[in-house]
Design goal:
Strand content: under 5%
Number of helices: 9
Number of domains: 1
Distance between the termini: 53 Å
Structural class: mainly alpha
CATH superfamily: CDP-alcohol phosphotransferase transmembrane (TM) domain
Radius of gyration: 20 Å
Number of strands: 0
Oligomer: single chain
CATH topology: Four Helix Bundle (Hemerythrin (Met), subunit A)
Largest sheet: none
Order of helices and strands: HHHHHHHHH
Helix content: over 70%
Length: about 260
C-alpha cells in the first residue's frame, strides 16, 4: 500500500482522481451519491471487499422494500423506507469505488452488482403498488397503471443501456482509437435529475405523507417514460448505423432481420 493510500484522506483523494465519466450523470448521483460512496469506500477496513459493500447495500434496499410491501403503514415510521433506500444507494456507489481503489474489480462482482440492481428496479415498483393498494391510498386501477408504467420504463432503460454499451464496444474495430467524449454539461445533469434513481430514493422519504408521495411518484413516472422513449430511440438508431456499416463492409451479422 502506498503512503497516500494508508490514510482516509489519501484514499479519498485517490478515489476523487479516479472517478467514472461525468457526462450525462444526474446532479444527485454526481454531487451527493458518489462523494458519500467515495467516503464509505475510503473508510472501509482492509478486510472488506467490494462484494461486501454490494451485499450491505442490497440488504438495506431489499429490506426497506419488503417492509414497504408487507408491513409499512401510513405514519412517521414509514420514513425508514426512504432512509433504507437512500443509504443502500450510497453503498451501491461505494462498491465500485472500493474496487477501483484496490484494483480489485472482477467480472463476478460486476455480474452480482447488475443482478441485484435489476431485481431492485422491479421490486421497487411492485412494493410501491402493494403499499398503495394495501393502505387504500389511491384506486387500485390507477396504482396499477402508474406503477407498471414506471417499472416497465425503468427495466427497459436499464437493460437497454447495459446491452447497448456491450454491443457498441464489441462493434469497435480492434485497435481503433477511442473517440474523446463530449465535455460534461451541468445543464444536462440537471435535466436528468427527475430520472435519477437516487432522486427516486429520496422521494420515498415522503411515504409518511402518502398523497404527496404518490403525486411526486407520478411525476417521476411520467419523466421516466418520456426519457426512456428518447434513450431507446437514440440507442436503436446508433445500433442501426453500426449495422449499415457492417453490411457495407461485408461483415456477417447474427442472422437477425435487417
Amino acid at each position: 500500500m502506498t503512503k497516500a493510500a494508508s490514510t482516509f484522506r489519501g484514499r479519498f483523494d485517490l478515489l476523487r482522481q479516479a472517478q467514472k465519466r461525468r457526462r450525462g450523470v444526474p446532479l444527485y448521483t454526481l454531487y451527493v451519491n458518489r462523494p458519500i460512496g467515495r467516503a464509505i469506500a475510503a473508510a472501509s477496513p482492509s478486510w472488506a471487499t467490494p462484494n461486501h459493500l454490494t451485499i450491505i447495500g442490497a440488504v438495506l434496499t431489499y429490506a426497506a422494500l419488503f417492509w414497504l410491501m408487507f408491513f409499512a403503514t401510513v405514519g412517521p415510521a414509514a420514513v425508514l423506507v426512504g432512509v433504507g433506500l437512500v443509504v443502500g444507494f450510497f453503498f451501491d456507489s461505494a462498491d465500485g469505488q472500493l474496487a477501483r481503489l484496490r484494483a480489485a474489480g472482477s467480472v463476478s462482482g460486476e455480474w452480482l452488482d447488475h443482478l441485484l440492481d435489476s431485481g431492485r428496479i422491479v421490486l421497487l415498483h411492485v412494493a410501491t403498488l402493494w403499499f398503495l393498494v394495501r393502505n387504500d391510498i389511491v384506486a387500485a386501477e390507477l396504482a396499477v397503471v402508474v406503477c407498471t408504467a414506471f417499472m416497465l420504463a425503468a427495466t427497459m432503460v436499464f437493460f437497454g443501456a447495459t446491452l447497448f454499451e456491450k454491443l457498441d464496444a464489441a462493434s469497435q474495430p480492434v485497435g481503433a482509437e477511442a473517440v474523446e467524449p463530449p465535455k460534461p454539461s451541468t445543464l444536462r445533469s440537471a435535466v436528468m435529475l427527475p430520472v435519477d434513481y437516487g432522486v427516486t430514493c429520496v422521494v420515498f422519504l415522503l411515504v409518511p405523507w402518502p398523497t404527496l408521495f404518490f403525486g411526486v411518484y407520478c411525476l417521476l413516472a411520467v419523466a421516466k417514460v418520456g426519457s426512456t422513449s428518447v434513450f431507446l430511440r437514440k440507442w436503436y438508431l446508433s445500433l442501426r448505423r453500426i449495422d449499415r456499416q457492417r453490411w457495407h463492409a461485408g461483415v456477417p451479422g447474427d442472422g437477425d432481420a435487417r
